[in-house]
């Protein structure tokens, strides 16, 4: 069995996990050696910098064959729920999806890798199918990243679904539960929402640079409350929802104690921080650790 590297990205660091024979050998955040603008994260220059980081880790551990799993930030993909009639013929569904995506995407459809997921939402008279579109340019650069780092790209997963793996592996998400996860970095807040144990919606909104006369904690709290309001509205109108209650989780490199307590006081529901302190004892010694890298290798932390 080859050793496995899992990586995810934030605005300041590459987040790295090393799995050897099914066990967690390392988990750390590696700062980029040069400043990288978030908009240039997948430029050829940035990929060259990251390839060197990964190759150095491979050499540090004296490894020959290494598989690479990558958690791609969802902001670099397009997630679209396409509405189609119930029990429609496959060819008609495909044509309808092509038309819908062609009007939705900012570039030509042929420039994207289109992935029809198995996630569907039954709305009685019709159903919605979740489709993911990723730029072929980004995919080629990630393949180049694996090549230059002398690894083999085994899996490419959106960070939202890497997060979903983490939630399921650690019993935060069940087939009947509704869960909202607030993920903070130093630039924006991303809220991933799961209905009946499966992905439903992502809302991303920047908070950096907004209303600087308002304290940071207040800005983040206001945005999180707005996101939860939108989520509760979706629940009230969705006929397939099994439970009304929403569990609230928060995580991210931009989370600190002041922000956590501000959010905790903003909601009537309990707010849980993930990973929990018990899950990080002994293995996660870097405050900037990002759990997407754990999810992308499908690793469960033992407590």
Provide mean pLDDT, rounded: 89
N-to-C CA distance: 25 Å
- Largest sheet report: 5 strands, mixed
Sum up the overall morphology in one term: globular
Radius of gyration equals: 20 Å
Main sheet strand line-up: 3-2-1-4-8
CATH fold assignment of the largest domain: Nucleotidyltransferase, domain 5
SS element count, helices: 8
Beta content? 25-35%
CATH class of the largest domain: Alpha Beta
Secondary-structure-derived class? alpha/beta
Low-confidence parts:
none
Protein name: Type IV pilus assembly protein PilM
Care to describe what's here?
With 303 residues, the chain is α/β, with parallel strands linked by helices. It contains eight helices and 13 strands. Strand 10 (188-195) and strand 11 (198-206) form a beta hairpin. It starts with a strand and ends in a 7-residue tail after the last helix.
Any key phrases for this structure?
alpha/beta; 5-stranded mixed β-sheet; Nucleotidyltransferase, domain 5; Dna Ligase, domain 1; 3 domains; 8 helices; 303 residues
Topology:
Layout: E1 3-9, E2 13-20, E3 23-31, H1 44-60, E4 66-72, E5 77-85, H2 90-104, E6 112-122, E7 126-135, H3 136-148, E8 152-158, H4 159-169, E9 179-184, E10 188-195, E11 198-206, H5 216-237, E12 247-251, H6 257-266, E13 271-273, H7 277-280, H8 292-296
Parallel strand pairs: 1-4, 4-8, 9-12, 12-13
Antiparallel strand pairs: 1-2, 2-3, 5-7, 6-7, 9-10, 10-11
Helix pairs in contact: 1-3, 5-6
Protein name: Type IV pilus assembly protein PilM
Organism: Caldithrix abyssi
